[in-house]
Amino acid sequence: MEASLKELTKLEKLASSSAKGKSPCIADSLDSLMRSLRETKERIQTGNIDESSFSALSQKVDSTKKDIDDRQKEVYNSLAKFGKTLDKRFTTPLPSYQPLFSSPEAVAALEQTIARHFLRTGQFETAETFISESGVNIEPSMRSQFLELHQIVTALKAGNIVPALEWAAHNRPFLQSRSSPLEFHLHRSQYMRLLLSTHPTHVPDALKYAKTNFSPFYPQHAYDINRLMNCITYVSRLQLSPYADLASSALHYDLEPMFAKEFCASLGMSRQVPLRVVGDLGGGGALARIEKGRKVMRERKSEWSQSDELPIEIPLLPENRYHSIFACPVSKEQSTDSNPPMLMSCGHVITKDSLQKLSKPGGRVKCPYCPNESQMSSALRMHF
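Request: output the structure for the sequence above.
Response:
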């Protein structure tokens, strides 16, 4: 992909107004021509013009046309090179499928998802344009909520935690029901900023802030608060102390995804952006693997045995694994809701079907991996 990305970068530079090329950019050429036309118009209106002015204007039009043609040629050449690199990288044509969004309900759901994606990612102008053109109905309350999310995350990026703290205080019961450490982490970030922001450090301000805000969190975060207090003794050389992690920038940068996660959870939404997950999984190789599997199965004249399972393994990042994944060491089959993993009293895990097949009269089961025997009724379902 490096060659394709390199050509794409060149194309973006040529298409931008600030790019330098063999010829001036189209926007600059047209702006220059417009200025010349306006100047000529003014001179005509004042009567201060002669034949040489029209001749110069004609030459200006011809030269501008040549510059635009040259620039367009550069862009087209770059676009052609970019297309060739893509063709070399992706030799297999894209598969064709039946339309997935043919019904009005499916189209409406897709448009809702796209509009929410733009709002959630802070692309409000694009979202408003899409909403007006598609006619999709997005409640004003949802728009204001996503605007609030964007404003608070922007403030966090700038080092201002006050809006996030106000939101956390207002939603404290919800955060406590989730055992979320968000509010404490916000106060911890502010405490470390106060402790390290001045040279020389002004410890009393940080201690005053800690005394005012840390008390309610001590029962759940006693260890962390003790470390925050003890790090003061190393404040002049914190980077070289046992508390060096408290001076890390990650202490502050991690607040943005944590806040976005809790904010979206309060709205009943997933912590990940759905369209981004789809793009990451599909573009990350899942579609190519699935299509290859379909092709092989068509050649072998076989079909998938179950609609809710894939016949091939798709590698996923840990954050994209949303359910238990367990392959039984006895049957070599992946566990399902109807065939879950079961923990025997000896500590070994097999699927429920394998457990039933190994059971003897009286419900006794001998573990296939150790000499222990146990009652089938004593096995516990495992949740990963």
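The two ends are 36 Å apart (CA to CA).
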